[in-house]
Amino acid sequence: MGGLLSVLYGVVVYAFFFGTFLYTILFVGNVFVPKTIDSGASGPIAEALVVNTLLLGLFAVQHSVMARKGFKRWWTRIVPPAVERSTYVLAASLAIALLVWQWRPIPETVWAVRDPAGVQLLQTVFWFGFAMLLVATFLINHFELFGLRQVFLRLLGRQLPKPEFRTPLLYRYVRHPIYLGFVFGFWAAPVMSAGHLLFAVASTGYILVGIWFEERDLIEQFGARYRAYRDQVGMLLPRVRISRAESSPEQN
Q1: At what angle do helices 177-187 and 194-222 cross, to 10 degrees?
Q2: In 3-state terms, what secondary structure has residue 68?
Q3: What's 78's DSSP letter?
Q4: Cα–Cα nearest to 165, from 225, 93, 100
Q5: CB under 8 Å to 188, separation ≥6 — which residues?
Q6: Which of 8, 93, 167, 250 could cysteine-pair with 20, CB 3.0–4.6 Å?
Q7: Which residues pair with 191 in a beta bridge?
Q8: Mean pLDDT, residues 5-10
Q9: pLDDT digits (tens, 9 = 90+) for 12-69
Q10: Are strands 191-193 and 109-112 parallel, antiparallel or unpaired?
Q11: Closest to 92 in 3D by CA, of 145, 51, 130
Q12: Alpha carbon of 36 to those of 16, 27, 29, 31, 150: distances in Å?
């Protein structure tokens, strides 16, 4: 019964996450949904700055604290280890849903691209970014990342295998293609409002901080293998390598 309840819980959480994720894409892109990053009546700018900063900070704190190993060790004394990841995903999804619901628009335009080709290019980068991050989750293990694998393994009476260090496809060129996809999605806006800029700057700053914590954990977990990988592969941009023969004029 515990295994069945865990699976039900994991599936419901995953469905809620995926719905929230899709809505957030449309929210950031100002398309299709009734509440977007720039829609709604604007209020006092001071109020919008305070509320939006608190919403972004709440997500950052939740996302970072619950991802740390020390918290996980304490947390799994309260919740079964098999649903720990699903609970983390639920908390993150609730924080994002609250942000989307309570976000205050700051509509002043920072920049606006009017050229149709430029608009099309930015929209393509926007959708490419979110498509890339979704693909990147499947390259590692999408269903483990969002807690489904854990609950199904519990139902089958099996343990989650130990993590293995892999660098499939996109991970051979950048260490964090998921985060890179978010950066593309957050910044590729034909019309950048002050509110959208606040969201993009704060989110990018959090991504950089999150990478620092995540890589610290990965080095602790994989040691020299991850250090060597970090030295060879760029964090968010591919690392260009120039051979000595190409870079030294006297060789020509």
Answers
A1: 180
A2: coil
A3: T
A4: 225
A5: 122, 123, 125, 126, 129
A6: 93
A7: 112
A8: 96
A9: 999 999 999 999 999 999 999 999 999 988 899 999 999 999 999 999 999 889 988 8
A10: antiparallel
A11: 145
A12: 19, 4, 8, 7, 34
Percent of the chain with pLDDT over 70: 95
Rounded CA gap, 107 and 36, in Å?
11
SS3 174: strand
Backbone angles phi, psi at 193, to 5 degrees: -85, 170
**Domains of the chain by residue range:** 2-238
| pTM as predicted | 0.91
- Quick: pLDDT tens for 219-246: 999 999 999 999 999 999 998 765 444 4
Question: Given its phi and psi angles, is residue 60 left (phi above 0), alpha (psi -120 to 50 degrees) or beta?
Answer: alpha
CB contact at 8 A, 87 and 159: no
Q: How many other β-carbons are positioned within 10 Å of the β-carbon of residue 232?
A: 12
Write the single-letter amino acid at 43: G
Return the structure tokens found at 241. Answer: 């390598």
Location of structure tokens 């060129």 = 173
**How many CA atoms within 13 Å lie on the side-chain side of 210?**
22
- Longest CA–CA span in the chain (Å) reads 74
Separation CA 212–CA 64 (nearest Å) = 11
Backbone angles phi, psi at 99, to 5 degrees: -60, -50
